[in-house]
Amino acid sequence: MPVRLAELAVRFGCELRGDAEAEVTGVATLQEAGPGALAFLANPRYRRHLAGTRATAVVLDPSMADECPVAALIHVNPYATYARIAALLYPVAAFGAGAHASATVERGAVVDATAWIGAGCFVGAGARIGARAYLGPGCVVLDGADVGAGTRLVARVTLCEGVRIGARCILHPGSVIGADGFGHAPDAGRYVKVPQLGAVVIGDDVEVGANSTIDRGAIGDTVIDDGVKIDNQVQIGHNVRIGAHTVIAGCVGISGSTTIGRRCMIGGMVGIAGHLDICDDVAVTGKTMIASSVHRPGMYSGTLHAQESRRFRRNAARFQKLDELAKRVRRLEGGGGAGGQDQDD
Amino acid sequence: MPVRLAELAVRFGCELRGDAEAEVTGVATLQEAGPGALAFLANPRYRRHLAGTRATAVVLDPSMADECPVAALIHVNPYATYARIAALLYPVAAFGAGAHASATVERGAVVDATAWIGAGCFVGAGARIGARAYLGPGCVVLDGADVGAGTRLVARVTLCEGVRIGARCILHPGSVIGADGFGHAPDAGRYVKVPQLGAVVIGDDVEVGANSTIDRGAIGDTVIDDGVKIDNQVQIGHNVRIGAHTVIAGCVGISGSTTIGRRCMIGGMVGIAGHLDICDDVAVTGKTMIASSVHRPGMYSGTLHAQESRRFRRNAARFQKLDELAKRVRRLEGGGGAGGQDQDD
Amino acid sequence: MPVRLAELAVRFGCELRGDAEAEVTGVATLQEAGPGALAFLANPRYRRHLAGTRATAVVLDPSMADECPVAALIHVNPYATYARIAALLYPVAAFGAGAHASATVERGAVVDATAWIGAGCFVGAGARIGARAYLGPGCVVLDGADVGAGTRLVARVTLCEGVRIGARCILHPGSVIGADGFGHAPDAGRYVKVPQLGAVVIGDDVEVGANSTIDRGAIGDTVIDDGVKIDNQVQIGHNVRIGAHTVIAGCVGISGSTTIGRRCMIGGMVGIAGHLDICDDVAVTGKTMIASSVHRPGMYSGTLHAQESRRFRRNAARFQKLDELAKRVRRLEGGGGAGGQDQDD
Predict the structure, then answer these.
(1) Which residues of C64-97 are buried (b: 16+ CB within 10 A; e: fewer)?
(2) DSSP at B305
């Protein structure tokens, strides 16, 4: 589907420099683009590839427009603009309405006439599948779960009893929404299972990555607000609440009953303890452990970076005695004798 | 199903203060409870909500009973008592016996007449499904695997060849029991796959969370003892052995051939290296790395907590030279010249 | 299938000491082996079990052969030799060709006549399934995906649109190849999804563990070269490239656009940031964070190990002020006054 640059400029609010009648048919990186391809430049680290590009047009920032050797679609947010153009050039495949012959739709399920239920899917009693929703092969929607309009379960997604998914969400393969939270009451050296009676409520425009898991609440619901984006293999415990437009990178774990604010950015492999409050606009760098509540917006870190092992081990061995080292420094400063009080304890 | 407080007190061994004829029909938190609801107070952090509760009754500890503004079900273990009452009020849905029309049960499988095989399930040759076992939609039980009496595979669980699951277990969606362990022998710059010939043996009353994986043994079995509770996205390597009534929080990884004792508590995202012995009654806080055996019960930690990034990075930069810093302190103490021996190395 | 030691020695290039006519029928550990069993000794930590073994034969290194109380199959690489013998003694079960009655193969899929499509599988339009490929129960192969000759999808594997898997690969249950990468462009406090237009290309002889995920490229492909071995619950982001014969242990996360060299060994729970270059022959110990490119082969580490919690917390508290401590040492050394410049900053 070739599109004229003039049309892209108008549709997405870009300033256009170059041949308005030129057409693009697809996207490519600056280095690999050839005739007919649209490229973009958002990350300054790739600026060096601009001069040599053979793309038909490049989406970029006004500050870089003068360097562009080909047609330029200029926008203050080139990455978002690129994303919108790419979505136009590569539309999601259309799908028919109805159900594959191998799907099971239990009596009492309510499936909109415009939805598609894929091969081998199971839709339980009382489940509701909204308009234009799409269930790819092998999805399981247990009793009473609710899938909003235009939401897409790519394949092999599991929605447990009574979970509610908003509109225009995308759930990737292997994701499990609404399994029991981890609740076990100790009793005389054993554990008694605590029934997990809440649900999971997911807003609109949420994306959940492959093999991610979001547990149902113990009492009351686990809540994911509108526009939250969750990467692969993220684990979200029971009764967690995540504010709108927060993004969570891969392999993050969030323990039960923690509340995370809006517009947060949680880096990969971050761990967040339970029963905490994280305010709006908090960024956490990868692999950090958050063990207490965060009440001030900003960026937080907490993991050491790799060194050559031999060198790291020497430092780590010193860490194991860091408290003693600090006390030795205090003594050198004359701050205390053998039995003295260490002021900075 | 309304239940009288008198009946709850008798059945669960509570002291009752208040109207013995009052009935409860469900549970709620202290803050959200209304008439007909039972609440509980176990975590002192929620004590402040007791005075204002509108619950019909509260399960709590004797020490807090005097503060309870409504009927009190008093027990030294209010959380476990709450769990038992909740299980009574919200029984697991009954299920029929037999198999869904879309299920595949291979010739040579032995399925108890009281078990249920859900939609789209596969049960391989030689597999055994015990009395009152429940397989939700999309489960795969490969040849020769064994599911104990009353065990529940919620949905989309995979049991590989020959694994054995005890009685009354719960396996959540996406869990995979008995995939090959990670065994590859290096040989001239490549790897030769080491056949994984053992199985996985899981005891009674074990719970395995969503998308958790437990690998089969290389030679001999991987063993999970009775009453072990495993949260979501936990990875357990080949030939690991986990003692009875140990609990493992989400995203933990345990490398091959490690043995963990009984009644341990492993926090979220903990990593445990291979070929270790962890004794009984060890607690490990979240995100800790266990790299050597633990022979003494107690609590172990090893991860730094987040700071504001700017501040953390300064400290982390100092860590990279901590060994040198310690040597400088030693020199200040007069313990050695430039070429001197550092006593605390 | 009993095999004579003489045959094993010839077939696998071992020196044989002992009864060439003796037969083995299976494998066992040194401690548990009885008559008819073959054991091996590769890890010196198990040398103490050699003297008492009741195995019929032991595969071991020349340096340990003199201590072997039973027949010895001597090879400089006993572990790889054991692996090859075990594969001979325990061949992978043969399978028929064709498709299970409950499988769905869409019009336009090309399935080799020697391949097997298991129960409940879905094979989309334009997908290609190669010779002797095996799809266990519940696999989903979306449109245009390609499965190479002799490749085995154990069960419940998902291949998304257009991914290409080489020959003789093994993909374990729950693995998801080709889900969308995590690409979202910020725009006025929200995010615009960036279409993920590349594929995943996996070479020959690759193994992917249970519940691991490998995302499709944003533009261009994610590439896993020949012989790479990936353990369970590993997450590989979009446009990552992994060189041949690299091994990646469980729970590792690799962020987008990072390139990893050949013959690397990545320990469990390691996190690798995005847009990095890791050269060939790099080893990373478990739980390390790699936050910058690595240009020199060698071993890298970066995680602290557990201590008793009380002791660890004291050290961690000192870490939070490590920068100040270093400055105090500098002052003690006479390197600067209150306002002085700290030379080692």
Answers:
(1) bbeebebbbbbbebbbbbbbbbbeebeeeeeeee
(2) P
| Bridge partners of residue A272, in order along the sequence | A254, A290
DSSP B147-209: E-TT-EE-SS-EE-TT-EE-TT-EE-TT-EESPPP--EEEETTEEEEPP----EEE-SS-EE-
Q: Which of B75, B303, B318 to mutate to test the interface with A (most CBs of A within 10 A)?
A: B303
- CA–CA dist A21, B96 (Å, integer): 66
pLDDT in tens, C280-292: 999 999 999 999 9
Tokens 């991610």, located at residue? A212
| Range A277-289 burial, b when 16+ CB lie within 10 A, else e | ebbebbbbbbbbb
Contacts of C301 in chain A (CB under 8 A): 306-309, 312-313, 316
User: Does residue B49 carry a catalytic annotation?
Assistant: no
Q: Do B232 and A185 touch (CB under 8 A)?
A: no
Q: Residues C238, C245, C275, C295: which is the catalytic one?
A: C238
pLDDT, position B339: 41
The encoded tokens of residue C186 equal 């910020």
The pLDDT of residue B1: 78
Name the token pair of A71: 């047609």
Which residue among B235, B292, B301 sits closest to C233, beta carbon to beta carbon?
B235
pLDDT digits (tens, 9 = 90+) for A47-60: 999 999 999 999 99
Half-sphere exposure of A256 (CA within 13 A, CB side): 20
Closest CA to B131 of B145, B156, B143, B148: B148
| pLDDT at residue number B337 | 46
pLDDT reported for residue C344 = 45
0.80 exceeded by the pTM? yes
- Report chain B residues whose CB lies below 8 A from the CB of C329: 325, 328-329, 332
Please choose, from the candidates C24, C28, C26, the residue with its C-alpha nearest in 3D space to the C-alpha of residue C41: C28
Nearest C-alpha neighbor of C6 from the set C23, C20, C27: C20
Please tell me whether residue A75 adopts helix, strand or coil conformation: coil
Count CA within 13 A, CB hemisphere, residue C154: 26
Question: pLDDT at position C214, please?
Answer: 98
Q: Which amino acid is at A251?
A: C
Mean pLDDT of chain B: 95
Complex ipTM more than 0.90, yes or no: yes
8 Å CB contact between A201 and A238? no
**Is the Cβ pair B173, A160 closer than 8 Å?**
yes
Q: How far is CA C124 from CA A166, C45, C149, C215, in A?
A: 28, 50, 18, 19
Q: What integer is the mean pLDDT of B232-241?
A: 98
- Please provide residue A310's backbone torsions phi and psi, each rounded to the nearest 5 degrees: -60, -45
Residue burial C144-166, b: 16+ Cβ < 10 Å; e: rest: bbbbbbbbbbbbbbbbbbbbbbb
Contacts 24+ apart (CB under 8 A), B39-47: B40/B78, B40/B79, B40/B81, B40/B82, B41/B78, B42/A185, B42/B78, B42/B79, B42/B82, B45/A275
Verify whether the Cβ–Cβ distance C263 to B189 is below 8 Å. Answer: yes
pLDDT band at A1 (very low <50, low <70, confident <90, very high): confident
pLDDT of residue A104: 98
**Catalytic residue chosen out of the listed positions A238, A245, A275, A295:** A238
What is the pLDDT averaged over residues B107-125?
98
**What pLDDT, in 10s, does the model give residues B32-68?**
999 999 999 998 889 999 999 999 999 999 999 999 9
CB–CB of A167/A151 below 8 Å?
A: yes
Phi, psi of C306 (to 5 degrees): -65, 145
C64 SS3 class: helix
Q: What is the mean pLDDT of residues B255-264?
A: 98
Would you say residue C255 has pLDDT above 90?
A: yes
Residue A11: CB atoms within 10 Å = 12
Provide the token pair at A26: 């697809």
Residue B344: pLDDT above 50?
no
